[in-house]
Each structure stands twice: as C-alpha cells, then as structure tokens.
Write a structure and sequence with these properties.
By secondary structure, this protein is of the alpha+beta class. It has one domain: Macrophage Migration Inhibitory Factor (2-Layer Sandwich), CATH 3.30.429.10. The protein is elongated and about 50 Å long. InterPro entries: 4-OT, 4-OT-like_dom, Tautomerase/MIF_sf. Keywords: Isomerase. Pfam families: Tautomerase. GO terms for molecular function: isomerase activity.
C-alpha cells in the first residue's frame, strides 16, 4: 500500500476541500500510471503546516512572507 504524504504551508487563502480532493485524485492517478499501483490501495495524507512552525534558510517563514509582501506591495524603504 503506497502512502503519500503531502505537506502544505498554510496560507492566508486556505486550500479548499475541492483543491485537496484534486490533489488526492491526481496523486493517486500518477501512482497508478507511473508505478502501476492499484488506485484503491493508494493512501494520500495532506498535512497543513502553520508557517510559524517551520523556516527556510535559518529564518521563520512568517518573517520571509512579511518581507516578500512588503517588497511586492511597494512598502520597502529604498
């Protein structure tokens, strides 16, 4: 039984139930096509991670997002 774990960072606009259903269906289909796995045996788990619970490059994601948002909205001081 293949077990696929998808981890998504929570966003301001949440991932909808429909989007999650599409991910589950798409990953299941991919496992069937690429590895010839029976679709009914494929298990897909979606974990949503709060941005304050992970980081990138030694920096919390919340800080990275704030900086990126400020630079794209013209809020930067240069």
């Amino acid at each position: 039984m293949p077990l696929i774990n998808i981890r998504l960072a929570r966003r301001d606009v949440p991932t909808s139930a429909q989007q999650k259903a599409q991910l589950i269906a798409g990953v299941t289909e991919l496992m069937h096509k690429v590895l010839a796995k029976r679709p009914e045996s494929v298990v897909v788990i979606i974990d949503e991670v709060d941005p304050e619970n992970w980081g990138e490059g030694g920096e919390p994601v919340t800080a990275i997002r704030k900086r990126r948002q400020a630079s794209t909205s013209g809020g930067g001081c240069e």
